[in-house]
Specification:
Layout lengths: L4 E5 L3 E3 L1 H13 L3 E6 L6 E2 L1 H5 L10 H10 L3 H4 L2 E2 L10 E4 L8 H4 L2 H12 L3 E4 L3 H7 L1 E2 L4 E2 L14
Parallel strand pairs: 1-3, 1-6, 2-4, 3-5, 6-7
Antiparallel strand pairs: 8-9
Helix pairs in contact: 1-3
């Protein structure tokens, strides 16, 4: 049986280490192949405040999240991300859009190129997952055929309007 191939796009900087690394670990434990992507193909780096303890509690990376992040960044796939422009949707079974709340996330959240790829994932009926701010990528991915967001008819769980 073929194992799934999961795409994990990230910004160059400031993503949430736990929201990316913990799902990555689950994929790895199941033997699923993962590919990382950044806008320019640069090796991504998590929000340092979440790694160094500046923001502890519900927003900071706990010990498990930190351990997962340290394992993830050692992986060759992480060290050699593809560019958003190189994403061939037909090569993947699913996409995972993770979050973060620091300024570097704007690159990811506002990427029209990534949004176009997300539309293709929906049109090809691939698996699509989003965590926290990753739902914004879905909301901003406009299907040119309908003029609406790909999640127009979906109910999602996300941050409150205030956040």
């Amino acid at each position: 049986m073929k194992k799934p191939h999961v795409l994990i796009p990230l910004p160059d900087l400031d993503f949430d280490p736990t929201e990316s690394a913990t799902p990555w670990r689950v994929c790895a434990e199941r033997g699923w192949r993962t590919t990382f992507a950044t806008e320019t193909g640069a090796v991504p780096s998590a929000d340092p405040r979440l790694l160094m303890g500046f923001i502890r509690g519900p927003l900071g990376a706990g010990s498990m999240g930190l351990a997962d992040y340290k394992s993830m960044i050692q992986e060759e796939a992480y060290q050699r991300p593809i560019k958003y422009s190189e994403i061939a949707v037909e090569d993947y079974d699913s996409i995972l859009l993770t979050g973060g709340h620091a300024p570097g996330m704007r690159q990811f959240l506002e990427s029209r190129e990534l949004g176009q790829k997300v539309v293709q994932f929906f049109k090809q009926e691939k698996g699509v997952g989003a965590i926290c701010h990753g739902v914004l990528v879905l909301a901003r991915a406009i299907d040119p055929d309908s003029g609406r967001s790909v999640i127009f008819d979906y109910r999602v769980t996300a941050l409150t309007k205030l956040l």
